[in-house]
Structures are given as structure tokens and as C-alpha cells.
Amino acid sequence: MPINDNTPRPQEFAAVDLGSNSFHMVIARVVDGAMQIIGRLKQRVHLADGLDENSVLSEEAMTRGLNCLSLFAERLQGFSPSSVCIVGTHTLRQATNAAEFLKRAEKVIPYPIEIISGNEEARLIFMGVEHTQPERGRKLVIDIGGGSTELVIGEDFEPRSVESRRMGCVSFSQAYFPAALSIKKTSSARAAAVQKLETLARQFRIQGWTVALAPPAPLKPPRSAGGDGREGRIYYAGAPRDAGK
To answer: For residue 87, what is the domain's CATH number?
Structure first.
């Protein structure tokens, strides 16, 4: 005789990040009050590569993005709109024809897409870290994306400072390394990065932090960036590493 199990299944949620270099999708559910990741999808679309000098997104870049969204849509069949959050970041913020991309995306994936500000992107990154990092204390979170870099200091789900700078691996590669690497180009890129971060470094130095996280590479808080070179623990892709190693 079959046994009827009326226990409700945990609701699934999906978050989709339309980044400048890659599109990411994470699917999770809440089990006993805790978030449980049950699936991830990532595809490189190189959206920023299709942005020309007039900030117009090329047809080829749009097609790559739409093809990826079509793949994501297959996995999201059956999800209610309230369970799916899709956000566009730096490249879609800059693209003058972003509205055209969104209109075409509506026909591919039946969920609204919101283009968020850099500061909102930073806030969401920080909240994600708070949900996944067990270590307590004030955190410095740095996320280096394809088109922008987000920096946050916060603690206990309360971001104290959120900042976004127009500097990323794709945008800097295009600006400073279109061909072969050189010492001169590297120095120019470093000087540009320092200029963008100087004021912010002073602000963050005053606040201080005990835990630094900068995926996907380990980060030792340097004196020039506001740390003392010794403080806290360092995290690499979610795993703690000692600062001195």
C-alpha cells in the first residue's frame, strides 16, 4: 500500500548574474533555516568584449548572451517569477542599447531582468559572503569582475561602506594590454588602479577590518591599501588560509 507523504518540498530559488565576462546562475533551497546550494551554471559570454568605443553592445555579444539565457531558461522551467532574481551589472550599465538586449531577453527567459547600480552590486556581493562565510568579524570584501570592482566593509549583515570602481579584468585588459605585455603597460595599469583606489583606501583604513576576502585569489591586506599587513584571516574561494603562508 503506498504511503502518502504530505511533507512539503523545500522551495527552490535562483539567482542569475549577467556579468561582463561570464553569466552565472545559482540554484538554492532553504532547509531547516539554512541556505543549501543545489546547482550552479556558469558560461563565458565575453559581453564586455562586444562594447565598442561608443558603448554600443555588438550583435555578436548580444547573441552570446541570449544563447546563454536560453540555456538557463531550460533549467528554470517551473520556477515562479518570485523565486528568480536576474541582475545585469557593469557592461549592461554602460551599454547605450541595453534596453534592446533586455527586450530580446524577455522572449528567451520569462523572468524580469534588473540592471543594478555598482553600489547595489557591492551590497549584494557582501550579503552573499555573509551567508556563506562562517567567520565572524568585520569583513573587507573585494570582488574583481570583468568590468568593475566592488569593495565593501561590513559586519553581521550590515554593510558599512559599499563602493564600485570602473576597473575590471576585461576593461583593463582592453585599455592597457590589447597586445603583448610589457613593463611600461603594466606600470600604467598599476598607476591607474592606484589612482582609482587612493581616496577609498584612506576611508577604509579608518574603519579597519579583521577578515579579508577577494575571490578567486587570496588577499593579504597591504599597508598601502589600508591594512597593516598582518591583520585577520585570509579567505581563498571560501576556504580560510593563514595570512603568513
So the answer is: 3.30.420.40
